[in-house]
Amino acid sequence: MIVLFTDFGTHDPYVGQVKARLAVDAPGVPTIDLLHEVPDFNPHAGAHLLAALAHGFPPGTVFLAVVDPGVGTPRGTVVMQADGRWYVGPDNGLLSVVAARAQDTRLWRIVWRPEALSATFHGRDLFAPVAAALARGDFPQDWLDAVDALGVEFGPGDLSRIVYIDHYGNAWTGVRGEPSVACVRAAGREFTQADCFAAVEKSHGLWFVNSVGLVELAVNRGSAAATYGLRVGDRVEVERMSGVSPRPAAARENH
Amino acid sequence: MIVLFTDFGTHDPYVGQVKARLAVDAPGVPTIDLLHEVPDFNPHAGAHLLAALAHGFPPGTVFLAVVDPGVGTPRGTVVMQADGRWYVGPDNGLLSVVAARAQDTRLWRIVWRPEALSATFHGRDLFAPVAAALARGDFPQDWLDAVDALGVEFGPGDLSRIVYIDHYGNAWTGVRGEPSVACVRAAGREFTQADCFAAVEKSHGLWFVNSVGLVELAVNRGSAAATYGLRVGDRVEVERMSGVSPRPAAARENH
Amino acid sequence: MIVLFTDFGTHDPYVGQVKARLAVDAPGVPTIDLLHEVPDFNPHAGAHLLAALAHGFPPGTVFLAVVDPGVGTPRGTVVMQADGRWYVGPDNGLLSVVAARAQDTRLWRIVWRPEALSATFHGRDLFAPVAAALARGDFPQDWLDAVDALGVEFGPGDLSRIVYIDHYGNAWTGVRGEPSVACVRAAGREFTQADCFAAVEKSHGLWFVNSVGLVELAVNRGSAAATYGLRVGDRVEVERMSGVSPRPAAARENH
User: Are A137 and A104 in contact, with CB atoms under 8 Å apart?
Assistant: First the structure.
């Protein structure tokens, strides 16, 4: 299975070009659109989203992860194997939270360059053929050089910011729900904990641990983003229950 | 064939997680994204859209239908077989218009609960595995209890409201075009009947029976929603030709 | 491979209905969503986008190309084979730029009409079954009449207008980047040439030859559309290097 995780957007002719390449290079392999709306130009938010989402996928899954504002510059490009899953993308931090949290990580720099390489669309020209080879089970030895570390690393810690706002207006944070969170503040107010949307009154705010393990802010049958003016990048404050060790803070929280 | 009909949105990482589960549980079965923009939190509009859209699909199709603002509460979850097609979703009325109009309907309550069940994402954790089993042809007997009726029913009648606005700005109503409609009023004006967009002048309004049999309001090469300020939930008035029996009114029109 | 190129939008239940038909009529053939946001009602912009995008696809690809504001009127419907690829769509100019630039073009009028033909959704009812037959390798002889020319032709030349704005706010023009472009003006200002986004300062404008060969206007880590107020249809002025023959101007530039 190849899983696409990009900021290419769902409206534009970018994803289709990547999928056509994959259909030719890895025929019969299912391709899943996981997310094409990673906040634009924001590998930091993307890194935390990818780390949260990747857990649900089976071993052998190949993630084609592209949020790449530096495309065309000499930034590195990498293949990573982490806890049995494969990742292909730019070396700009996007894969680094997965790397830092994994039990077992192996890394390679992509040294291959295709004959036709657009300066602005490595997703189609460079990353897709590499992902296709991995998905077919053909490890492309000649295209790769083993390396010890990523060039850009955000570390294993949480990101105390909003990293995604969905179409309901729910705001995902980069903070994992475990160990137990006691109190969440954002936009100058404290949110109430609830297990599901309907546990609070209609139009009331809440926070909950979402389906991929992150603290999420919502409004029952409404939009938290619109109600509280929340935006990607906004800080959130999280207090954990006393006696529970907090996770280490993110090494680098600015983005 | 598995057909997805949800309010998960096309931008968010929800549909991809469902499709990854289906790819694992029902490999090789085509999965079709029919609609992920059912009006949010609105099973009533969704029920009428689903009833209109489902007709075009072949026998054996499995609809995974999720518009589920009550997820995580004790609302029921159901499997339905209606006129040879399967439906899996919450028991909140979403499947009830299909049920009430079908010649032949069988119903089961889903009693199975997966080991890992998110409080907010039953589409992925509960409904997708059930839909996958049906699509593989493995009726999951042990997961289901036969029941006689749905818990929430909207009845077989039409819904005299706007139930969907498409990206052109065309407004779908919940009113079927047969028996012959004579006159359609919405937003304080009467619309002209036409067979296709180009049958009226550019920027003029019209109504027509759309490609799934519903009365739809449009503007030739323009947006009916923007021109007339139409929104989902707005009432429409429909007069039928004298001598033609009207359909029964919807049992419950508020939403 | 069947490639969808339409103005059906990614949010609406149109694409899913087309794909369900294709899944039934051409089982096992990969279907790629290339673009469903061709500017609404604008076959002229669409014709230039299609010509630029089609190059990257392998021989035998079947393009289902539908931007069809005249659906339901007696406008023609065609099958085209151009340089080894197939195209199915309305005869309203949408296929004509591909036709005019191809080395080798063959054309047929679609004379077949399905039993159930919606007045407003020929994409599903007429074009999809024809595309499916071609993709299966069953040339539908009885459904087609060979013709010598399209009814509506835009010619082989470039279109000196903005033809698409992507979700980053980058503006695609209908002007090909070769032979060498020296200078690009739009919205009353001259743009700087650069090879990639990061070659200019953050928030600065640039133009570049994009991944499908068209001149594109962008802002590094920002939106060119928002920064300069660019819209589809806006004129752009392009000067080519002296000594390089310009391409012939488009036969018909208004739309």
Answer: no
The tens digit of pLDDT for each residue in A20-63 reads 999 999 999 999 999 999 998 899 999 999 999 999 999 999 99
Query: Which residue of chain C has the CA closest to A125?
Result: C211
Q: How many contacts (CB atoms, under 8 Å) link A and C?
A: 76
Cβ-Cβ contacts under 8 Å, C13 against chain B: 34-35, 49, 53, 212
Question: Which residues does residue A215 pair with via DSSP β-bridges, in sequence order?
Answer: A209
Rounded Cα distance between B235 and B184, Å, is 11
Nearest to A211 among B23, B27, B124 (CB): B124
Contact C72 B32 (CB under 8 A): no
How many C-beta atoms surround the C-beta of residue A94 within 10 A? 30
* Reported confidence tier of residue B69, pLDDT bands at 50, 70, 90: confident
Cα–Cα dist C175/C181, whole Å: 9
Give the helix/strand (H/E) hosting A78: strand A77-82
Beta-carbon separation of C195 and A72 below 8 A: yes
- List residues in chain B touching A: CB distance below 8 A: 9-17, 19-20, 23-24, 27, 40-41, 69-73, 118-121, 124-125
Task: Report whether C210 contacts A120 (CB < 8 A).
Answer: yes
Cα gap C124→C198, rounded to integer Å? 43
Summarised one tens digit per residue, pLDDT across range C207-234 is 999 999 999 999 988 999 999 999 999 9
Inter-chain CB proximity A3 and B20 less than 8 Å: yes
Q: Does ipTM exceed 0.90?
A: yes
Query: b or e along C214-237 (b: 16 or more beta carbons within 10 Å of the residue's beta carbon)?
Result: bbbbbbbbbbbbebbebebebebe
User: In terms of pLDDT, which residue wins out, B248 or A189?
Assistant: A189
